[in-house]
Amino acid sequence: MKSLFACFLFAVGSCASGDAIIKVKGSDTEVNLAVQFAESFHEVNETSIVSISGGGSGLGIASLINGNADIANSSRRINDEELELFKKKKIVLDSFVFAQDAIAFVVAKDLKLDTISTIDLAKVLSGVYKNWEALTDKKVQINIYGRQNNSGTHDFVKQRLSIDFTPYAKQMNGNAQIIEAIKTDHSGIGYVGAGYVGHGANTEIKVLYIKDGVVKRPVSPLDATSIVAGLYFFQRPLFQYYRRSSISKIKAFLQFENSDQGQQIIRTAGYYPFK
Amino acid sequence: MMHYRREDTDRLFKYIFKAAGLLTIALLGGIFFMLLYNSIALFANIKPLDFFTGSQWNPESLNQKYGIAPLLVSTFLVAIGSMAIAIPLGILTATYLSELAPGRLTQFLKPAIEMLAAIPSVAIGFLGIVLVGPGIAKLFGIQSGLNARNGSILLAVMSLPTIITISEDAIKAVPNTYREASLALGANRWQTIFRVTLPAAMPGLIAAVMLGLGRALGETMTVLMATGNASVIPRGFLDSIRTITATIAIEMGEVPYQTTHYFALFAIAAVLFLFTLFINLVGERYANQRRKFQE
User: Fold this and answer.
1) Does residue A273 sit within a domain?
2) Are the Cβ atoms of B229 and A171 closer than 8 angstroms?
3) Residue B185: C-alpha distances to residues B100, B182, B192, B195, B202 (Å)
4) For the complex shown, is ipTM > 0.85?
5) Residue A182 sits in which domain range?
6) With bands split at pLDDT 50, 70 and 90, how would you rate the model's confidence at A16?
7) Which of A16, B40, B99, B202 has a CA positioned 20 to 30 A from the CA of residue A53?
8) Does residue B275 contact residue B260 with C-beta atoms inside 8 Å?
């Protein structure tokens, strides 16, 4: 019934505009970038319309399975359970990496901490360190502001550090809310996509340098050259998943993302090209 | 000929109305059985004892934990906290409106209170993030205002219209003879209100509180936005909490179908449903009692 309805909508849409509407759903991290792509693509290619919506990586992939989206934006790799569902429905899946994202760890400006090692970070986020005494001179409680557990960013940080988040971590609705919280909370630490903190827009928060065991030098998520060289610990490819059968419909859009203009959009939006 | 037709129309309409009534009941029954059916599937994988007494809700970890306790405690903490604010405020307002306020002021105040019910919950949640939360943080000298206290205040605001409107009706319904008798015996206005009018209206007031509580328990968006969503058993009002409703809202969109996690969400929904059903039934019972007394 639902798919019938979707077919019907699809038919109406294609009659009205000549070209079909490309529906893109998924990751909230990628949604700003995707909107900019869609707008610029429409300027170049006036007959096509790209509609973008967020909701989380998992939602995008679920929509791709049941045919409510043509492209699923995902800030994480598709997992086995989801792949199984595609197999069951006999859908051939293709993926495309269109940009890279870095996760920035942010604290309030007046916290005496500029660099954190991944080992310490794991201890902070898993609740081993309950206050800042071990890392700074102040003994104040650590407040963690993370994303909700349906977020690809949440999963990514968890897997990268191989930890379970402490249940005391607060779960916020989105990147902007985390930044708002860190601005007022002088003992908070949060993680957001680098696109949300770039360009020195927020003067009340501080982006931490991350030091890991391999790259001895602390690296900032705002350092483009290091990211392109793959030196930052929390950088990840941003995926777009699509059905192989719908390639003809979305090909022009994917090519646009890969063009010079597309790469420029990626950079100005605070993300990094995948090259 | 005309005679026939009228009877047929009558019968037809009787069936239409009956069908509409039965449909509502069928919907309620259907929802309840769907919740129950899916919840029972959970207990194939999880021991009921672990579900009800487990102190952690963490379906995402490797060692999945489905303890409803932190969610239940959070839900009731924030709801009871909101009632602690809304009951005195609501009943006093209702008393003022029905007993003391001059007619013109009532005409202005009543619609204003009803307007309060028209504010979307997402807007109230937003106020919680940008206004009430930071205010609480400053007031209590803590770093973050996203906690149970924040949620309580917002839910109190949201349940006030329900409590005030129903209480006011209940107080108005107390026959004037009661007041006159009290005043004639030499009681002053204060004594009359607190010792005669309000006790006489008590069943209606309880109904108002129960319906307000039901509203606070079921509210989702506001608590999701304003309480921090940390799923541990809170130690007090200044801790972040995560209610049943917020948990369902956050996790339902993502959960793979027919998994333990999926069934667990149905199970906590069923628990919430049973609680609100019980509270609404109690409320209704008292509301009916009031109606009898009016006759």
Assistant:
1) no
2) yes
3) 20, 5, 10, 13, 22
4) no
5) 102-228
6) very low
7) A16
8) no
